[in-house]
Specification:
The chain is mainly alpha-helical. It contains 13 helices and no strands. The protein has a domain of 43 residues. The radius of gyration is 30 Å and the shape is flat.
């Protein structure tokens, strides 16, 4: 009899617990359930599910993308190292065995480290994408306005939906590849020190790998400068006469941005040629000076002030006419 009472008590408590759980879930998800029913009644069930799941789909895709970038590069780095068999043969057996064991650890056992490390780095880099998922949604599905700006000829929707996402992608890619390049360089350095005691060149695969990462990082940085062009449209320096870029922005700042982009790419290529082939020192110096000069000149206020004083102000109607027209047309 007591067993039946105990079973009845357990069943009653279980039912009460289940009811409390369902009630709690109902309270927590009431808005979600009502919102779902409302979309179903309007025939927008698929849209609701897409809106609900899109952030998680985006988060998973971005995380997987960065994870693959980090992991594949770490995996390649563990296999591109060249081993000097002649030097290993000259070592005593114990030392040779110890070093080979460490190198095998880099090549195989290190996967236990590279996988979680790649995942952690991917999540850290991708966090801004999790927070800006709605911007990514508008980037994909945002409609065209049918109105183009008068300077770069881009549709207005580009500045509302695309440009912020491009800038976010550029920042995160630059951070990701910057961290990756430094990490791979450290990994190759450690492997190289373990494999040989002599000062020798790194293996061709290692140099090629690092050169590729450095070039990609430089191209991403150059893309960031390229995107800076569009920020000129937001200048307020000419208000209240008109809004947007004027003679100074288009004929002074914009050419300097292009010089920064091209000189950075040229300097990166020249640096890689110098490192890998020992040639191009003068070219590297030239592009380096151009890049530094373009950045420095853009931050010197005296030159724009002189252009404004001696070129723009004496005849503002002639110099600023087209830019005023662009503002009126917009």
């Amino acid at each position: 009899m007591e067993n039946w009472k105990r079973l009845l008590l357990i069943a009653t408590l279980s039912l009460l617990g289940l009811a409390a759980l369902l009630l709690g879930i109902g309270i927590l998800f009431t808005d979600l359930i009502v919102d779902f029913w409302w979309h179903v009644e309007l025939g927008l069930k698929e849209f609701f599910l897409l809106k609900l799941l899109y952030r998680y789909i985006l988060a998973g895709a971005v995380t997987a993308f960065f994870f693959l970038i980090f992991f594949l590069n770490f995996w390649a780095a563990s296999r591109f190292l060249g081993v000097d068999t002649d030097e290993f043969a000259q070592m005593n057996r114990a030392e040779s065995t110890r070093r080979m064991r460490v190198l095998r650890l880099f090549q195989s056992g290190s996967m236990k480290v590279f996988i979680p490390l790649s995942l952690l780095l991917a999540i850290a880099i991708a966090i801004p994408f999790y927070q800006e998922w709605h911007s990514a949604l508008m980037f994909v599905f945002g409609p065209k306005s049918g109105v183009n700006d008068g300077v770069f000829g881009q549709d207005v929707s580009f500045y509302l939906f695309s440009l912020p996402v491009y800038q976010l992608i550029e920042r995160e890619l630059l951070l990701g590849f910057g961290v990756l390049t430094i990490a791979i360089a450290i990994l190759y350095f450690l492997e190289h020190r373990i494999s040989t005691d002599k000062l020798k060149d790194w293996a061709p695969g290692a140099r090629l790998h690092l050169s590729g990462l450095a070039l990609v990082t430089s191209l991403i940085l150059a893309w960031g400068f390229f995107l800076e062009r569009y920020q000129l449209l937001y200048t307020e320096a000419h208000e209240p006469q008109y809004f947007g870029p004027g003679f100074l922005e288009i004929n002074y700042h914009l050419p300097l941005i292009w010089v920064s982009v091209l000189s950075l790419i040229g300097a990166a290529v020249a640096a890689l040629l110098l490192i890998n082939r020992g040639k191009g020192k003068a070219v590297l110096a030239l592009f380096g000076v151009l890049f530094v000069t373009s950045i420095g000149v853009r931050n010197i206020s005296a030159i724009p002030a002189a252009i404004d004083r001696f070129i723009i102000r004496p005849n503002p109607v002639k110099t600023e006419r087209q830019f005023m027209k662009n503002n009126i047309d917009a």
